[in-house]
Amino acid sequence: MQIRAARSEDWPALWQIVEPIVRAGETYTYPTDLTGDRARELWLAGPPVETWVAEDDGVVLATVRTSPNKPGHGDHVGTAAFMVAPAARGRGVAAALAEHVVVRMRAQGYRGIQFNAVVETNTSAVRLWERLGWRIVGTVPEAFRSPSRGLVGLHVMYRSLV
User: Fold this and answer.
1) Which Pfam families match (predicted)?
2) SS3 annotation, 35-51
3) What is the pTM of this model?
């Protein structure tokens, strides 16, 4: 598996990963009717956003989008959003991307990485992030409308890089 910067020509493969996750509406706050064009603008935005892919034999398995969490006085803390193709889940792809992000963001001078909205019912993601050093610093009750479970909480998770 190789991790590299995403390129514009990766978008069709990335959309194959992003679209079903967005349409399901269970793990991200994106609107379920998000268009491919708008998603591309968000996911492949220019600096300070960075987008990475994990690929194996030329097949894109997963992607991560990183950026400062907030502008101005909050730009020393980063954020990241990960999406993994269903066929690649359970293979350590997200963990490898997360470690890449930690190294990259630390080298860029970020002091921490904050996930603003980890759906509490996404237990596999919560367990992974906790195993990799993130901790839940708070939960906003009923802040997410899950199509299958109704109102559920959103965790804010944080990992220090210093």
Assistant:
1) Acetyltransf_1
2) CHHHHHHHHCCCCCCEE
3) 0.94
